[in-house]
Amino acid sequence: MADENAPMTAEEFRRHGKAVVDWIADYYGRIESFPVASQVRPGQVRASLPADPPAGSEPFEAMMRDMENVILPGITHWQSPNFFGYFPCNNSFPSILGDLLSSGLGVQGMLWATSPACTELETHVLDWLGNMLGLPASFLSSGSGGGVIQDTASSSSLCALLAGRERATNYESNTRGCNGNLVAYTSSQAHSSIEKAVRIAGIGDSNLRLIDVDDNFAMRPEVLATKIKDDRKAGRNPCFVCATVGTTSSNGMDPVRKIGEICHEHGIWFHVDAAMSGTAALCPEFRHFQDGLELADSYCFNPHKWMFTNFDCDCFYVADRRALIRTLSVLPEYLRNRASESGAVIDYRDWHIPLGRRFRSLKLWFVIRSFGVEGLQAQIRKHVELGQTFASWVREDKGFELAAPVPLNLVCFRHRGGDAVNQRIMDGVNRSGDLFLTHTRLRDRLTLRMSIGQTNTQLRHVERAWERIREEAARDSS
Ligand SMILES: Cc1ncc(COP(=O)(O)O)c(C=O)c1O
Questions:
Q1: Maximum Cα–Cα distance for the chain, whole Å?
Q2: 66 alpha carbon to ligand 1 midpoint, in Å?
Q3: Does 276 sit in the ligand 1 pocket, CB within 6 Å?
Q4: Which atom of ligand 1 is nearest to the CA of 244?
Q5: Looking at the predicted structure, is the pLDDT value of residue 471 above 60?
Q6: pLDDT tens digit string along 80-131?
Q7: Is 244 in the pocket of ligand 1 (CB under 6 A)?
Q8: Out of 112, 304, 347, 404, which residue is the most buried by the measure of CB atoms under 10 Å away?
Q9: Is the CB of 156 under 6 A from ligand 1?
Q10: Do residues 221 and 262 make contact, with C-beta atoms less than 8 angstroms apart?
């Protein structure tokens, strides 16, 4: 029976739902007609919205009109094949549909008992992925560990740090709090989420050691070993090391095996953050970047960056699930249930920070089944090849230079004319709306980042981007 207060009947939902799917399909059809980066001024979107919410129900058509007129101008088109900024946050139709089904089911999967399929599909898909990426057997649910989907790599790294902190204090910092003696280590090129995690976990910024990198922006393991020894000598408690496979600034690859051996020797929790570049391991020829992963206690990568799965979706693996669960599990009476007490099920609420959780594995399942392993590999190889091609053009052009090695699909480069010229090139191409690029600083010089990983990017988009960059450079020198 229809509820007379419901804003939409099932029949209307069916009709509007089809219109929304059509709108999304058409959006992808016309996406290249929009300026890639939104051109609105601060406050412009809000100024177009009514000050107060409507007292009564509005027609659906009015909302869709505002999608076009108010929202779209304020969108930076991350799904445009001309989006080369930051790292990608790519997407695909099967993923959107999986996510829609998750919304439709509206499941909250905090416990196995609150929706067994939500938990069991997640365990299964993460085991699939573990095998697809060549992860060590200890990270699979059949081993001592297992995988879980988190919102972001930031959350995964925080959970890893918390587990490392607890293991290093014999699980006492959860009870007594931190005493200022714990120390964490990562490279000077690691993502800012590690520093944030160190703050949240109560370790303290001043107890995070940012280890020097070599000429390839990779952590220097001998410096790490010395710092750990110095801290031990000074009576401190080293509890966590994070290596990065594919740093954000320059795609630097930390030497996982050497760092892992040091962590092993000192009994320190070893986390590997492969948020962006982990996806490359779908292809056996790129797995050497993660050589030594069997020495890691935890690992994460983001299908929501480079594996065609819409935000949010980070996969977090641990080698010893007991350490993670012991760190994060708090059991109030109202969550007790027979299945949990039987010990035969996984309750993912104990594997991350929030209690509640969406049915995210549906979209990942749809992506893997729709592309197939070979289809995913083909996409990754295409992006890497496009990255290498772009790098070869930079190498051949006397006006430009590469600013870092190009192991995969991120090209860090700069015009030889200096920071101001590079800034003008970036501002020029971005203002034109033809493409979107972002920057970093490497060796204290402004560096442009060409990050190639959008689902629909083809050679012609990369060719056009290079042409536009050179046009802007020529304008600068004329
Ligand atoms: C290496 C690395 N780690 C962590 C992150 C943070 O990702 P998230 O937004 O999933 O927290 C990024 C984001 O670009 C990253 O490149």
A1: 76
A2: 32
A3: yes
A4: 1
A5: yes
A6: 999 999 999 999 999 999 999 999 999 999 999 999 999 999 999 999 999 9
A7: yes
A8: 304
A9: no
A10: yes
